[in-house]
């Protein structure tokens, strides 16, 4: 087996928060975010092992700031540890106002 670096599995997903993704406060729903994170994690893990994967468990998720309707969501995932047949995937998520830099 060839060793692989964490950076080899780096996966960046970008999504736009649309009305169907929000709760009554106009913020991105946690469930929708976790759905996107699940896909980003799977893509990253598959990059590492070259095989299909499933999510076995989730360690910890905390939502520190709301992400608003119209914001862009960035999800960065990479494999941070591999075991016999399982992997640990670390993710960073942040929202961005698409007009913030203009
Ligand atoms: C994850 C799953 C394949 C594990 O099956 P299993 O029969 O327990 O398999 P094993 O005991 O051989 O474990 C395989 C590996 O998974 C790890 N594992 C199993 N359950 C785990 C859990 N809850 N959390 C973290 N790792 C877990 C084991 O430690 C083992 O890792 P290792 O080979 O690196 O030591 C099985 O529980 C499953 O298919 N779950 C449903 C997954 C799914 O559908 N996810 C979508 C979201 S619902």
* Overall mean confidence score, pLDDT: 95
CATH architect. name: Roll
| Poorly predicted runs | none
Classified in CATH, the superfamily is: Hotdog Thioesterase
What small molecules are bound in this structure? coenzyme A
Give the N-to-C terminal Cα separation. Answer: 47 Å
Q: Describe the strand arrangement of the main beta sheet, using strand numbers.
A: 1-2-3
In CATH terms, what is the fold-level topology? Thiol Ester Dehydrase, Chain A
Secondary structure: helix percent: 10-25%
Helix-strand makeup class: alpha+beta
Q: What Rg is obtained from the alpha carbons, in whole angstroms?
A: 15 Å
Largest sheet: 3 strands, antiparallel
User: What is the name of the CATH class?
Assistant: Alpha Beta
Beta content? 25-35%
| Total separate domains | 1
| N-to-C SSE string, H for helix and E for strand | EHEE
Would you kindly provide a written description of the structure presented here, covering whatever features stand out?
The chain has one helix spanning 30-49; strands spanning 11-16, 72-82, 87-96. The protein has a single domain (6-96), classed as Hotdog Thioesterase (Thiol Ester Dehydrase, Chain A, Roll), CATH 3.10.129. Strands 1-2-3 form a 3-stranded antiparallel β-sheet. The chain is 20% helix and 26% strand. With 102 residues, it is α+β, with helices and mostly antiparallel strands. Coenzyme A (COA) binds at residues 54-57, 83-86. The site of coenzyme A (COA) has 8 residues, from loops.
